[in-house]
Fold each of these.
Amino acid sequence: MVHLSPMFDWLAHQAQVSPRKLALVFGKQQWTFAELDDGAAQMCAQLTAAGVTTGQHVALLLPNGPEFVLAIHTLARLGAVAVPLNLRLTPAELRWQVTHADCAALLHVDDTAPAAADLAVRQINLQALPPSPEAGQWRRRPLNLDTVQGIIFTSGTSGQPKGALLTFANHFYSATASAFRLGVLPGDRWLACMPLYHVGGQAIVLRSCLYGTAMVLHPRFEAAAVAESLRAAAVTLISVVPTMLHRLLEHHLDSLRAPHLRCILVGGAALSPQLARTCIELGLPLAATYGLTEAASQVATAAPDEAQRKPGSVGRPLLFAAVRVVDAVGNPLPAGEIGEITVSGPTVMAGYYRQPEATAQTLRHGELFTGDLGYLDADGDLWVVQRRSDLIVSGGENVYPAEVEAVLREHPAVADAAVVGLPDAEWGQRVVAAVVPAAGVQLSPPELIDFCRARLAGYKIPREVRWVEALPQTASGKIKRDEVKQLFVV
Amino acid sequence: MVHLSPMFDWLAHQAQVSPRKLALVFGKQQWTFAELDDGAAQMCAQLTAAGVTTGQHVALLLPNGPEFVLAIHTLARLGAVAVPLNLRLTPAELRWQVTHADCAALLHVDDTAPAAADLAVRQINLQALPPSPEAGQWRRRPLNLDTVQGIIFTSGTSGQPKGALLTFANHFYSATASAFRLGVLPGDRWLACMPLYHVGGQAIVLRSCLYGTAMVLHPRFEAAAVAESLRAAAVTLISVVPTMLHRLLEHHLDSLRAPHLRCILVGGAALSPQLARTCIELGLPLAATYGLTEAASQVATAAPDEAQRKPGSVGRPLLFAAVRVVDAVGNPLPAGEIGEITVSGPTVMAGYYRQPEATAQTLRHGELFTGDLGYLDADGDLWVVQRRSDLIVSGGENVYPAEVEAVLREHPAVADAAVVGLPDAEWGQRVVAAVVPAAGVQLSPPELIDFCRARLAGYKIPREVRWVEALPQTASGKIKRDEVKQLFVV
């Protein structure tokens, strides 16, 4: 849109309008917007000196910390595309993503240097860059909303990760709609304890900057530290996955009752009506959300007032998200009937990077077919019945059975395998596998689990393996996952 | 933007996501978003039956009330352009605007029927329309942000009113930036007591709907009623001009201290540092803003925290408003130096309707030259020194001297005239005129004022007239307005 031309990168804007306002808290360290802006200008000069240029794809192998936040803003100012990598992936998984995303460089810190060393891409250690005298040239840059901000990998039923292309427009409309649903106040402080390489974490970085509000960043979710921070840092909003909420409820209920806390946003996995009811009975300001990487995070959110009315629902679609529930051929279903959830609007990704087939399958005439099952009730509230048919969500991380099954089948002792998620009070779901042995080969479950460990991120590894004679299948050969689950109930 | 296509009109969205939420309070009457939506659907059907079609310009001769609010939403849904008229204009002034804006119809109510009857345009009395059975067909319509929402007349130094074309995008970016500066909470209630035919009033209608929050509408500013409402309706934000603030401070200080009130937004005219300091000393949540019709209201706003730091400043530009202060040839001036304020960004109007010359003079490469004088200080805070050189702002209404002078000169007893604004504790400024008599004609000041009354809205009529032998002029014949003011000081 031509009339958006004078917009500058969001950090530069805040450095101009709210230079002294608190932007970031990380442990005992604090940054104002002016300080963060100085850091981004410096990093722009440093990365330019290191050969990073506009339009390049740059992988981030970074733990939660100020370097990650600065890298996001720096790449935006440079016009380079951020490709955050999941730190829990194996070297083989990381290698595939860096190659597939055509990354020209990889940013890391001392802690992630060993993992980075395995990857065949130019390495840039953010903690070892010499100061640059050119920072002054990087005070701000015009921002085109239609530019790609980043590529975030998500897996799929195919078992192959796909890189969702998210534009600044996607993030802008997502942040704006979130503000209109949950509210925003100049004094807000949003606590982020989920990985910034996930869309939900990164959205907090971009959103807080756009709003001119502060982010309270944690290196990871550690219940005691988060609880302490809720009070000490006067946090007003926090994003958590159900597992985190569960732990906070168990041991740190008091901290969730901190007077400033006006919103506990729970997403990333299904929130059980039971957990929702517990929170509501305790008077906690619970907000339940349904979102996905391909729609730049939140799609539907029940604000605290609404969540109270209907525990278990994720509320109405956000301002810019048009949601439909459709049958197998794409026709809308009446209220109450379960079908596939679709999303359209300006928060929907531009597509998957270099995967035209997957893009065409997922994006049809601009409408995102999520693969998730749910229904809209008579009020228009969304209920998510099941994430992408076979998707397992364990502690907020997505596990795609196809990917784990493919690894299991690589082992000579395995003829076939079916991976499912079982309900788990702490993790939401835990990964288990039913395996058909290859004729003449014997293997103990621990041996098979060890085999996986070398090839899969820890959260994807089956917690339990059962040998079966055959997998329950439909006539057409599709695995009956519900029956697989039954095998583990006994 | 193609990815915005699935956006629906904002009222339809709120009726879908917040049907039971309070949308409008007017006296003892209340409307939820669902009720307002029903009203708009009904009015869509009624206006269609009355011949209104997409793309038409439709004048509104309406007092503040539910009909005005419904008309704004209805015309948006119909894809017709709203042309709100200032109720204080004379029949001749109204006639000119209705003709100039090519209005195909005019909406009025019983109270404004007599004024409407004077205008040669199809009349539609909103209180006399038969119910339509076709409302069901008007539940919602796609909204293209780049469509013109309305034309709001503003005058100029030429003395000829000009119709600023405002798009939905203008309003959307304005509302979003306002939310990020002042905050928005799901329970917000914004009190509107200024006329809805002004951009500042209409912006509250559109903004509240976009946010899904409530508007508490008053028929006019009546201090006691507003004060009562601040408490009784649990108002959280209120928009006022300095004159209104002055009156509330004088007689209803308690109401300004109502516990829910988190923002008193003062705009429309310069807020004296004195009045600002009084509010701050009283601990009131004052926010000072500078805005104009051509930029869809707010351009810069000092939120309560910031207003406290610098009484008299209007703070930093909003997110989407790039502000420059330039010299006579358009070059930017250093901090602290006074020059013309310019604005660029997506809130800037598309142009003046059918006035290519005025548009070219005001909009240069998309940058709006406001004619207002001010400076940016070293922190980037904006200070407005003087509205559009000769503009007089009296009780929140803009008075353009050229327009009043043209009327005075029509009288045979007047050879020449200069109109200026004098400081006024209650009204901000009051209109006065220095008049050079025509040879051989004698007239008393009251007679000349009566002459104006038939031709000018009440607030434009000089409160005082002085006969002078000659007007103080520059060598090039330009009136020295500062010296004219001196004539009245004695």
Note: Residues 33-49 of chain A form the longest helix (17 residues).
Amino acid sequence: MASEIKPPVIILVKPQLGENIGTAARAMYNGGLASMRLVAPRSGWPDPSALKPSAGAYDIIMDAKVFETTREAISDLHLVYATTARMRDMNKPTFTPKQAVEALHDAIAKDVRVGILFGPERTGLENDDLSLVNGLIHIPLNPDFTSLNLAQAVLIMAYEWFQTLNIEGNRKPLRSQPPLASKSELLDFFDQLESELDRTGFLRVLHKRPVMVRNIRNIFQRLSLTSQEVKTLRGVIGSFARPYLKD
Amino acid sequence: MASEIKPPVIILVKPQLGENIGTAARAMYNGGLASMRLVAPRSGWPDPSALKPSAGAYDIIMDAKVFETTREAISDLHLVYATTARMRDMNKPTFTPKQAVEALHDAIAKDVRVGILFGPERTGLENDDLSLVNGLIHIPLNPDFTSLNLAQAVLIMAYEWFQTLNIEGNRKPLRSQPPLASKSELLDFFDQLESELDRTGFLRVLHKRPVMVRNIRNIFQRLSLTSQEVKTLRGVIGSFARPYLKD
């Protein structure tokens, strides 16, 4: 099922610099997005200056499709959202990036073709472009400094997109863990440690002994020590138990 | 309350290019982060080439503090996570960016000073740096293309940080906890422990020493030890360092 998910198309409207198209392609690839469309790129297309900044996302650059107008670029899509840096006074639903990718994800599962629109670097999207879309995406950022470059805005959306694919992965522990020490390994370690501490005199004040032992055990219980780590700690304590090599 | 939240310190370890320090500062500012530390930046500091790429985040650049070693850069912090591009075979808790910023946010509310470590552009953090931190942050991205530049990694963390500020109302009430040990308390404990282990001969096989030291440090980093617990452990080690009472 997940392998049949067709990710959102990324549409860059009037991008000014080939370099920014390249870094946007790289950000798309980071988040598992593959399909790029360009509306009237200022330096024409293909643009060799996009290649190096794409850092290897060549397929996205090579397969990018060019259109004259935003309208043509989105005509085969069903559901399109536009990113905006500032809040617009426009009666359209507005989403956070996370809300937007979740809505897109749900739509894709119903065979809806979806896209995300990004405006030119300095000016952002024009109201005519915004009138073509179903909703707006507002990236919540420091209100004193919302300036994001194109690739950064694409990266945030691509990152959030990838998290929707990964939801189940996020529920599981990320990595298989080495085997934990059994309680008997742990208790043998405590026995060894405490008998050494009796020997050194650390636990000599008898009425304090129970609480000190408990404090020390609590420290090591909190750790969820692995079997190997208990062996290491036993080696450490064992080394203290032997007469010093040199003093 | 929220206005007193002191955001995480961003620590860039051995950044290679001033330009990347500038773009990282910009990404920090986007997410409302203000405090930057640099460990041994390759081109020295101050570095005028950082200014223009910061796109106006001058205060962050001007206030950045420089350190010789990672250890010094984090010594006054209590809880530090490190970002890693690949999964490490290391028994440390591993978080998504969202899980990490939520944990940091909760810690800050209890007056814990926190930081996030980022490695050099090409090579990432070394295992010795990772042995100093409490947990790892793995940014889930397209497994075929996880290459993120420094500023992009900082942006993802800064963006997620800003989202935690926005959901203040949803947050759980906090349980009061005893104060965590600062990194300098912890590192002093490591120094004491390792010098004792040198003395007992436990670390005598020189080519194994670095990995053994790292394994031992990792055990205790996982704990988020309190200040009082570090004192207890220092007492334990101190008792081993004295001649035995009876043998």
Note: The CA atoms of residues 39 and 70 of chain B lie 6 Å apart.
